[in-house]
């Protein structure tokens, strides 16, 4: 990583090395089989595919939404070893998505000695993408980064009374983000080269023989962020401006570290069930480094303005949280449930350093203005929620009602100031009715919450939520399911005139054959969302911001086997009929798998994606992806 | 006093000796083998027979009458009317006390009506699968739970490599612990046994308490949908509860229909209320 330059994409290098490393591991394991214990059973499969694509319209818009590309692909790798003497002992390797054609790659390794030891290793990598067309200036944001996660866990179950495990987790993010940057009263394009890494190590103890099951996990986490800045262009984005962004760079490193303790207790008898947890996380945060931004005033004709931030910051944040869930079966029909949560986060911060403004005139000496910074801050937020519910059930019918109370209190102050506090309380009620008969279940639930005061003007003061679910097994493998969720949140005109309505409902029909080998289903869903928010008036009438979405989604999917050929397909049609930005899209996939010679399967597949906006066609696309894969099975 | 005690003892001895002399000796497996030779041989080779032999030869000798009842009359007149041909659950409970207690209390569905132990278990007279089951667990459970066992053949199901998990990996027919017990709180079912990291209580939970835990999103026995989800399109599943999204989430764009790209800690987070990370 250079101090003022673009980060090297270390993640890409690791991935490049990882693909042959994984394949080498697979080959090594396969060859190891030849020298393995007599009778050890090896089985598995490896599938490799090649994908091509035909694009009409905006390929960049397609990559923005799906990021599926052409090239080779490791469709699947499965390698399984079972001991000859102990069927519970063995290992499994799985991998899929490698090769570049797919936006995410995954690998899994599982091992067990058939006794107390077990090992899990997971690797996941996915690309995040949001690459707008070069000429697009609407939101001026481009994402092109990847997130890689390594997760390992070893478990020992050799104690009679407890299980012990250890876990190591590392996540890294690399790539770049381009976003608007505000300076000199205008927005300029900024490129951020990402270099974030989080490492967490934990040990865990779970009891087995105590009447109350105890789980204790102690972990340590360290997160480092070493993002680096550079201009993504010189000129202002929105409005032509003579001032140019001449340079921006940072050596700033952010670090968060600290332990985390989680204690969970759970126990149950025939009449009572208890779950309780407590979390304590003291975290240290530290930021050191320099950020410098330089503008060429009037293209440099009038000199330059440089802003240098030399402020270092540190903070200690302590989070405590506790959760309690208690269920009491009072009688065979009556049940009482209590949920309680408490969460407190307390941050003490300090800023120390100075900010420097340097103005340079082409004809004269530079002038500096220094502003020392020495301040402390304190921020504390406390959330509490308690819910009590009484439920009754007899036969097919069940009923529940209850209420909840919650509060949020936020306190903050700078070192020299008196503390300021804001709070928000809420109360609510809930009602649930259910029916579960022979193969049919239905439920309806309604909750209403009212809030006192707003911390932000867009906080709702009343929220109503109604949910419906119906599921029915019709026999001979048929099933229907339907659901609906209707929500409204609002606050008075004097606050922001918030009126946020959403309605999501859908129904589906599915069938599964008696042996599970074939299935199909259809489903239609409608999602309507209309959000009206009063904008702060500049004078005269209050304008209203409106976002209107009306999505209709229809999906059909199925898999069937005919004379040894397995076919699967799925298609989804999405239509947005809302006022904000109406659009229609298709996504469809089909795959045929036929047995080939010498323990192989041959698969051909096709995918179709389309995007068609009602207002304009700059981002429209029609993309057809096709491919062939060969799967070799061995055992 | 001593003479009285001696006389009383003598009387007891005579009476008990006379009684003993008058009683028929209890039938042993050798007696039963006179007619049921093959059955007796098979039983002795099976798990029940071997377990009884390990206890003592006398226990094995009483193996037939222990389940089929007193055979005194049957020995004289061998008909099906004077012998307990098919033992009921109370007979098994005489030895398997703990299992009988649990199944009555907590897995009542398996103890209803005529469905006794021999509905699932073999008696030991014939070849049996592991744990003296009448047949392989999947076929056995599938007799009544055909839909669930068929679901194990769906494209996405619990498998170890290519083999589906046995039913007993998650379920206990007798109930052997709290994890299988019908949950009063409706969360943390058998999934927590293997997926402890997913089912763990967290500061910011998901799914929330009004959902029915893991099965609100996942079909535990098998699904045609990836990750065993109950919906083919994951975005539709999320929207069922989260339709009230901010306008920055343009749902008609593919990016915002891949929710877990950003909300990666989908099973809950100790650090971020929006489930951005774990």
Per-chain topology:
The complex is a heterodimer of chains A (635) and B (278).
Chain A: H1 10-32, E1 41-57, H2 59-65, E2 71-82, E3 89-96, E4 104-113, E5 117-131, E6 142-156, E7 162-183, E8 186-207, E9 213-225, E10 228-231, E11 244-250, E12 253-268, E13 272-288, E14 291-296, E15 304-309, E16 312-329, E17 334-360, E18 367-394, E19 397-414, E20 420-436, E21 440-452, E22 462-475, E23 478-490, E24 499-512, E25 519-534, E26 544-562, E27 565-576, E28 583-595, E29 600-613, E30 621-634
Antiparallel strand pairs in A: 1-2, 1-30, 2-3, 3-4, 4-5, 5-6, 6-7, 7-8, 8-9, 8-10, 9-12, 11-14, 12-13, 13-16, 14-15, 15-17, 16-17, 17-18, 18-19, 19-20, 20-21, 21-22, 22-23, 23-24, 24-25, 25-26, 26-27, 27-28, 28-29, 29-30
Chain B: H1 2-22, H2 29-33, H3 37-45, H4 47-55, H5 57-61, H6 63-68, H7 72-76, H8 89-93, H9 97-106, H10 137-142, H11 146-151, E1 159-160, E2 163-164, H12 196-199, E3 204-205, H13 234-241, E4 268-269
Antiparallel strand pairs in B: 1-2, 3-4
Helix pairs in contact in B: 3-4
Question: How would you sum up this structure, described in words?
Answer:
The complex is a heterodimer of chains A (635) and B (278). Chain A has 635 residues and is mainly β. In chain A, 5% of the residues lie in helices and 69% in strands. Chain A has helices at 10-32, 59-65, and strands at residues 41-57, 71-82, 89-96, 104-113, 117-131, 142-156, 162-183, 186-207, 213-225, 228-231, 244-250, 253-268, 272-288, 291-296, 304-309, 312-329, 334-360, 367-394, 397-414, 420-436, 440-452, 462-475, 478-490, 499-512, 519-534, 544-562, 565-576, 583-595, 600-613, 621-634. Chain A is globular and about 85 Å long. Residues 1-18 and 132-138 of chain A have low confidence and may be disordered. By secondary structure, chain B is mainly alpha-helical. In chain B, the strands form two sheets. In chain B, strands 1-2 form a two-stranded antiparallel ribbon. A two-stranded antiparallel sheet of chain B has the order 3-4. In chain B, helix 3 (37-45) packs across helix 4 (47-55). Chains A and B meet through strand 5, strand 7, strand 12, strand 13 and strand 16 of A and helix 11 and helix 13 of B.
